Amino acid sequence: MNRVVRLLPLLLGVGLIVLCARLPALPLGPVPVTLQSFAVILAGAVLGPWRGAVAVLLYLGLGLAGAPVFSGGAAGVAVLNGASAGYLLAFPLLALLGGGLVWRVMPAGSTPRPLWLFACGLAGSVLVLHPLGIAGLVRALEITPLQALSIDLRYWPGDVLKNALMAVLASAVHRRWPGLRRGQC
């Protein structure tokens, strides 16, 4: 397969994450609510765990190198000192774990089931995104873990909605391009 054709889904994943980060955010506490985590878990679910994680690492690399791709147009390594650092650093692991679970419960050639994809995405959020986000809040804001948890809980309803949307879209993508799971796209 042509190298450019193989890279296209990866670049589309990076582009989707950038787009979702740059959409207007909801100011809900020290970390604005964006669609970044939706795009990250969608990348893992659609591209697969490894390519999804690579797409996220490319996105983070762009932002840390100075491209204004983070929420609100932020860029550079200074974001690693902010309240959102833990969430950003969790993104590659979220794509890896969430995408890995999706691809595990959806063997090649099987019919994608949105409820299973939703559960996989939510598991990734619960096991990776929120714990690392809480740790980042503790470090950046110099607060207790319990205080950080109370801040993080504000983000859970939106996270449930983002994972539901991911499940519907990822399921539709896999139904439309069944060869994607077998590495044929």
Automatic annotation (TrEMBL):
Pfam family, one: BioY
Subcellular location: Cell membrane
TM region(s), chain numbering: 30-50, 57-79, 85-103, 115-135
Membrane topology, from the record: Multi-pass membrane protein
Domain of life: Bacteria
Gene3D superfamilies with a match to the protein in the record: 1.10.1760.20
One annotated GO molecular function: biotin transmembrane transporter activity
Listed GO CC annotations: plasma membrane
Cleaved signal peptide residues: none
Keywords: Cell membrane, Membrane, Transmembrane, Transmembrane helix, Transport
Family statement drawn from the similarity comment of this UniProt entry: Belongs to the BioY family.
Protein name: Biotin transporter
Species whose genome carries this gene: Stenotrophomonas koreensis
Organism lineage: Bacteria, Pseudomonadati, Pseudomonadota, Gammaproteobacteria, Lysobacterales
